[in-house]
Amino acid sequence: DIVMTQTPLSLSVTPGQPASISCKSSQSLLHSDGKTYLYWSLQKPGQSPQLLIYEVSNRFSGVPDRFSGSGSGTDFTLKISRVETEDVGVYYCMQSIQLPYTFGQGTKLEIK
Amino acid sequence: QVTLKESGPALVKPTQTLTLTCTLSGFSLSTSGMRVNWIRQPPGKALEWLARIDWDDDKFYRTSLKTRLTISKDTSKNQVVLTMTNMDPVDTATYYCARTTCPTSCYTDYWGQGTLVTVSS
């Protein structure tokens, strides 16, 4: 199975400040079709996960542009340009290049 | 409006079989490219993918649980069913169904609210 490792595991950010989460995979997520199968989701308290970013850097419909994804191969980053209070929750990266799909341990974002 | 809703028992005894149903609304699993996954989350822990069924009835399972899992669909009822045999307390988790759609790219875009299953005697 592909292991997804997120850092940090927790983050405390002042509203309006930036935040960054790293995700590293144990194998390259670049497929022969040219796509990289790395996704970011946010699980708000008491809710199910919601998709933020697909294929490294594509924002899903309705996701604010303060969220951006970057990276390639095995190293990926989710950035929030200016954190808002509604961004609290646990952020997960996920790979779908190979079954079983696997998730990172999650990064808990709190507001200072 | 796309929704998924899980249903099933909240409590099962060790060694029993768990049957969960995911009722789909706003889309059809018979549509080309559509997939439904089952994913679980033990309390306070990370997400774990379990199984997937595709529009063409292809089925995929987590290798470590393959002997215990069965996924199926009833297109006429717009439902996906997951059964897990020989339940153990370590299987206590919130179980989610989630849709993967592949218009131009594939992504898992909608999740159900989840259903908490506790395994205890």
Low-confidence stretches of chain A: none
Determine the most extensive contact between two protein chains: A-B, 24 and 21 residues
Give the DSSP E fraction of chain A (strand runs of 2 or more residues): over 45%
From the alpha carbons, calculate the radius of gyration of chain A and give it in angstroms. 13 Å
Shape of chain A: globular
Distance between the termini of chain A: 36 Å
Overall residue-averaged pLDDT value of chain A: 96
The chain-level mean pLDDT of chain B equals: 95
Quaternary assembly = heterodimer
Tell the overall outline of chain B.
globular
What structural class do helix, strand and pairing data of chain A support? Answer: mainly beta
- The ordered H/E elements of chain A are EEEEEEEEEEE
Our count of helices of chain A gives 0
Strand count of chain A = 11
Number of helices of chain B: 0
Q: Can you characterise this structure?
A:
The complex is a heterodimer of chains A (112) and B (121). Chain A contains no helices and 11 strands. Chain A is an all-beta fold. In chain A, strands 2, 4, 5, 6, 9, 10 and 11 form a 7-stranded mixed β-sheet that branches. Chain A has a 4-stranded antiparallel β-sheet with strand order 1-3-8-7, with no helix packed on it. The termini of chain A are far apart. The mean pLDDT of chain A is 96. By secondary structure, chain B is mainly β. The N and C termini of chain B lie far apart (39 Å). The model of chain B has no long low-confidence stretch (mean pLDDT 95). The chains are: A mainly beta (112), B mainly beta (121). The interface between A and B is medium-sized, with 24 and 21 residues.
